[in-house]
Design brief:
With 484 residues, this protein is of the alpha/beta class. The protein has 3 domains: 2-149, Alpha-D-Glucose-1,6-Bisphosphate, Chain A, domain 4, CATH 3.30.530.20; 153-282 and 428-483, Alpha-Beta Complex (Quinone Oxidoreductase, Chain A, domain 1); 300-422, NAD(P)-binding Rossmann-like Domain (Rossmann fold). Helices cover 28% and strands 31% of the residues. The chain has helices at residues 14-21, 27-30, 120-149, 202-209, 275-295, 312-323, 335-343, 358-364, 382-388, 425-429, 432-447, 464-472, and strands spanning 2-10, 34-39, 51-56, 61-70, 75-83, 88-98, 105-114, 160-167, 176-183, 190-199, 224-232, 244-248, 258-262, 266-268, 303-306, 327-332, 348-351, 370-375, 389-397, 419-421, 455-460, 479-483. The N and C termini lie far apart (57 Å). The structure holds NADP nicotinamide-adenine-dinucleotide phosphate.
């Protein structure tokens, strides 16, 4: 057996280095010899057992499996499953230790493997120099790019003003008003972000109308954005200036140019996913993630009914549910939207403007009904949702585009021994560890094509009212963005 060992000091705190390395698919961002990489299946990229399938710049393909990961010990072990390079029984361990001053990291990387006779030296050199020493240099460069990337110059530490959109009173799109806001320099645990794109969500409409007390007149709207980290406050270890990040969080305030938010609530955007795509999928894709993987774990053969299947959430949920083996039925209001819904994974589409879909759902599912209903319709869909439920079906009410859901009778679900849930994305994303897992799975779904982001329109920040009108008119498809 060959043994290769290398180590290096990295000029960054251990939590920062570990946050990068523990993501088994992060090497595309920092390793100079890695050209492309993806995690197989639908696995988060920090889950033990996940497999990364990557191509080196010289064209060689390698599949490696993560076989152990300890956040406590900052250690991970992985092995090669198969490769174009003749490294047999290759097992490698990465181990980090804090250097005594606390701000730097000792990185130890070692492996054992077998090689064909006569190629021991060549292949040990390739691993030790090309992979390990190249990796140390690549990560140093990546971190330095981040430190230089923010370009704040003299503005470091100073408040930054930007344009924003507030609602001056509750009402229609006409109540939206341009205002100026100040993003203070980040305090402990905070990051300041220059927004690149802002996701518009139906919840923004509910809040603007006064249907949900999540913001008060005068407040800036918006719960989602992507952009570049300008600076970070003390104790922030998960991102550095220059990182591209996305977030979905309360309180409202994302309809603006620059914003300071808690670092624990942001997720780094992987290379290969641009900022607009990230803003189009983050909140809605995380919602699809919890709907299909958490609140109801979809299994092959189930029937999933997705309302507004050509919309922001609908397109993502439909495609994802199909990839999990479900039969997907979508409802939409026009034939044009039906085409979009089919393109995004619906096996059957019911075109109805009047919320009459139960008969069609029962027909399409051979009388079974829906095991999961993803319902953003609210009031007008109640009758047909109840009639569409499969035995033990799960009706998940996520929104109320047609009006507030009336109280349900206590015996409303007994005819199908069914379940009703009313989840909220922000409860799922509140815990940083769960958010990281959800975001990892979402990025993976985007990169592997399981969900296909659809940007239905881009609007300047000052045209937010126009974007709201379009969303409420039922004419939009996919996700709408504001570009500051
Ligand atoms: N609880 C959560 O965690 C969570 C998270 C994300 C989203 N949501 C909810 O999911 C739903 C979809 O959100 P989204 O942001 O992706 O919006 P969207 O689906 O892009 O737009 C809303 C769609 O709802 C349909 N709709 C039906 N009746 C309507 C009416 N009377 N007025 C307006 N639209 C109507 C329309 O599609 P058709 O014309 O094709 O019917 C419309 O395009 C919303 O209810 C939202 O609140 C909930």
């Amino acid at each position: 057996m060959q043994r290769v060992t290398r180590s290096a000091i990295i000029d960054a705190p251990i939590d920062r280095v570990w946050a990068i390395l523990r993501d088994f698919n992060s090497h595309t961002a920092w390793h100079p010899v890695v050209a492309e990489s993806g995690i197989e299946g639908d696995e988060p990229s920090d889950r033990v057992g996940c497999v990364r399938n990557f191509t080196l710049r010289d064209g060689a393909r390698i599949r490696e499996q993560l076989i152990a990961l300890s956040d406590r010990d900052h250690r991970m072990t992985y092995c090669i499953l198969d490769a174009d390079v003749p490294l047999e029984r290759y097992v490698a361990t990465v181990q980090l230790k804090p250097v005594t001053d606390g701000n730097r990291t000792f990185w130890h990387w070692q492996s054992t493997f077998r090689t064909p006779r006569g190629r021991e030296r060549e292949l040990s050199e390739m691993v030790g120099v090309g992979v390990y020493e190249g990796g140390f240099a690549g990560l140093r460069q990546y971190l330095a790019r981040g430190r230089a990337g923010a370009g704040l110059g003299d503005a470091r530490g100073a408040p930054i003003e930007s344009d924003a959109i507030a609602f001056e009173r509750t009402g229609g799109p006409e109540v939206l008003r341009p205002v100026r806001v100040v993003a203070n320099a980040p305090g402990p645990g905070e990051v300041r972000i220059r927004h690149a794109a802002i996701g518009i969500n139906y919840v923004d409409v509910y809040i603007r109308r006064g249907w949900m007390p999540l913001a008060a007149p005068g407040d800036v709207l918006g719960v989602e954005a992507s952009g570049v980290v300008l600076d970070v406050g003390p104790d922030v270890t998960n991102v550095i200036p220059g990182d591209r990040v996305a977030y979905a969080l309360l309180p409202c305030g994302s309809y603006c140019g620059v914003r300071t938010v808690p670092a624990a609530q942001v997720a780094r955007i992987p290379d290969g996913i641009d900022n607009e795509t990230a803003a189009a999928v983050f909140l809605k894709g995380l919602t699809a993630e919890y709907l299909l993987h958490r609140i109801h774990r979809v299994v092959p053969g189930e029937v999933v009914l997705v309302h507004a299947a050509a919309g922001g959430l609908g397109t993502l949920a439909a495609g994802w549910a199909r990839s999990l083996g479900a039969t997907v039925i979508g409802t939409v209001s026009t034939d044009e939207k039906a085409r979009t819904a089919r393109d995004h994974g619906c096996h059957h589409v019911v075109v109805t403007r009047e919320y009459n879909f139960a008969d069609a759902v029962l027909r399409a599912s051979g009388g079974r009904g829906a095991d999961l209903i993803v319902d953003g319709l609210g009031e007008r869909g109640v009758r047909d949702n109840l009639a569409s439920l499969a035995l033990f079906g799960h009706w998940v009410s996520v929104g109320q585009a047609s009006g507030a859901l009336p109280p349900l009778a206590s015996d409303a679900l007994v005819h199908r021994s069914a379940t009703f849930s009313q989840p909220v994305i922000f409860h799922y994303t509140a815990d940083p560890a769960r958010l990281a897992e959800m975001a990892g799975r979402l990025w993976q779904a985007v990169q592997s094509g399981v969900v296909r982001p659809e940007i239905g329109g881009r609007f300047e920040l000052g045209s937010a009212a126009e974007a709201h009108r379009l969303l409420e008119s039922r004419a939009s498809r996919g996700a709408l963005l504001l570009v500051p």
